[in-house]
Design brief:
The protein is of the alpha/beta class. The protein has helices at about 35-40, 45-50, 70-80, 115-120, 150-155, 165-180, 195-210, 210-220, 240-245, 285-310, 315-320, 325-340, 350-360, 370-375, 375-395, 400-410, 430-440, 445-450, 450-455, 460-475, 480-485; strands at about 1-5, 30-35, 60-65, 85-90, 95-100, 100-105, 125-130, 185-190, 225-230, 250, 255, 260-265, 280-285. Keywords: Oxidoreductase.
């Protein structure tokens, strides 16, 4: 067993790819906030591939976090020189490589002083984030900036010692403006429609609360490119730790992933960028079409099956695809109620993309839990499912399947699976969702009255009536009976 580190790279098993470049000569260009599995399997990998080609050696990543739990990840990564073993899981076989594009991890501190200082370094030209879809302080009612959130109120009152990543970005940009260092690009890598525009909204709006002139400077000088990111990356648990050890590597934070990646980026970088397109990324002026296809079909498809799988105690996404009724439900909803509202993009039709996602979800090597995919439904359903509902209704089309998706989510949020096992809280607003879900057993409309999520859909009988029908049937006869009725 080889303990992963710079010193032991030459001792790794022969089949494991390892960095061919001299990591000691890398210099930083990117601060990335949120060093979860997805970043290390996706953005970090693209940069690593460029470095393997002798490029972008002045764009290395410095990791960062703003939450106390991030300190544990920092300790694990620093102990192995910020190296990560990526294990690609494919039905045809697995392969492993060690990625070396990250070179340091900033200390986690109250007030985020170290993070602010790192982002003021003139070498840093991009600050990127993966902080989850629900982490951008979006008011669920207006979809604008949530200026009343306690953390935002704190950062507005204490701009030099902020709590949030966005407060730290504002503080760093103030110093860069005042010292003449200049702006950097803010790059969102989360699954949000118009993610760059959302990041701009959050940063500029927060700055405006304490320093309107700074907000104007950021808005005029910084860039926030939109992007679409895609790769299925399960969480790391005991099985993944055992897998990397079976290869012969002692890595305390390995990452497994599928054999597919996609990154479509708006080419809008105020301070330069790596040539990610030379590693397979796509620069495009029409990111919106790519992200609509991905968010509606892949992310929406995940929500179609994950809550159903959880209620029926089907633990993994690939097992959902092996379940005849869940698979048939997925296919029918995708092809009849989601796919018709998605346009083709260069190299891919909606029909081809649905087939691609079906194959990816069915990969038995990817041990992706339904619980992970069902997490934070209060962000994911409004972002990934309800836009398709609204488009169906605008065009006078059925929403029977999508209403059943919402009913399955409401059933899931009661907190008890059909086999009687307890669902541990799985949403930032779980307590409120559970109260509504339990009330909806007697009156389904109680669930839709969560206006922050459903808005005007609560009053639209074309959606509310099938939702009530399905939820009533689920509670009376079980979820499989509802699937049978829909499929019939």
């Amino acid at each position: 067993m080889v303990q992963l580190s710079n010193a032991t790279l030459s001792q790794l098993p022969e089949a494991v790819k390892r960095p061919s470049y001299d990591r000691s000569k890398l210099t930083p260009g990117i601060v990335h906030i949120g060093l979860g599995n997805f970043h290390r399997a996706h953005q970090s990998w693209y940069l690593h591939r460029l470095m393997e080609a002798g490029l972008a050696h002045d764009w290395a990543i410095i990791g960062a976090g703003v939450r106390a739990p991030d300190a544990a990840m920092r300790d694990r990564l620093l102990a192995q020189d910020c190296l990560t073993t990526l294990i690609e899981l494919d039905p045809k076989g697995q392969s492993a490589e060690v990625v070396g594009s990250m070179i340091d991890y900033i200390p986690i501190e109250d007030g985020n002083g170290a993070l602010i200082k790192a982002m003021t370094d003139p070498q840093i030209r991009i600050v990127a984030l993966t902080v989850t879809e629900g982490g951008y302080f979006i008011d669920p009612a207006t979809k604008g900036f949530d200026a009343k959130h306690p953390d935002i109120l704190h950062d507005a009152a204490n701009p030099e010692t902020p709590k949030t990543a966005f407060g730290a970005i504002v503080a760093a940009l103030k110093i860069r403006r005042d010292t003449g260092v200049g702006p950097f690009t803010g790059q969102c890598c989360d699954n949000l429609q118009g993610n760059g525009a959302i990041l701009r909204q959050t940063v500029v709006s927060l700055a405006r609360l304490s320093d309107p002139e700074l907000a104007d400077w950021i808005d005029a000088n910084c860039t926030f490119p939109n992007a679409m990111v895609d790769c299925i990356v399960p969480a790391t648990g005991p099985k993944e730790l055992e897998l990397v050890r079976s290869i012969g590597i002692e890595d305390n934070c390995p990452v497994t992933h599928e054999n597919f990646r996609q990154w479509v980026i708006e080419d809008n970088f105020c301070a330069g960028r790596p040539d990610w397109d030379k590693a397979g990324a796509t620069f495009s002026d029409d990111v919106h079409s790519f992200e609509t296809m991905k968010i509606r079909i892949l992310n929406g498809g995940h929500q179609v099956i994950s809550d159903v799988g959880e209620v029926l105690s089907v633990a993994h996404i690939s097992e959902c695809m092996d379940h005849p009724k869940i698979h048939a439900f997925y296919r029918k909803v995708e092809t009849e109620e989601i796919m018709p509202h998605v346009h083709a993009v260069p190299g891919m039709t909606p029909e081809g993309y649905v087939a691609l996602i079906e194959a990816r979800f069915s990969n038995p090597m990817i041990v992706d839990t339904t619980r992970r995919v069902a997490f934070d439904g209060s962000s994911r359903h409004p972002g990934f499912i309800l836009p398709s509902v609204r488009e169906c209704l605008e065009k006078g089309l059925t929403v029977e399947g999508l209403a059943l998706v919402s009913a399955a989510w409401a059933r899931y949020c009661t907190g008890i699976r059909e086999d009687g096992t307890v669902v541990e809280p799985n949403d930032p607003f779980w307590a409120d969702l559970q109260i509504r879900a339990l009330a909806a057993k007697e009156n389904p409309q109680e669930w839709l009255e969560n206006r922050l999520l459903y808005g005007e859909l609560a009053d639209d009988a074309r959606f509310a009536e099938p939702f009530a029908k399905w939820l009533t049937m689920i509670h009376a006869q079980g979820l499989e009976a509802a699937l049978d009725a829909y499929l019939a």
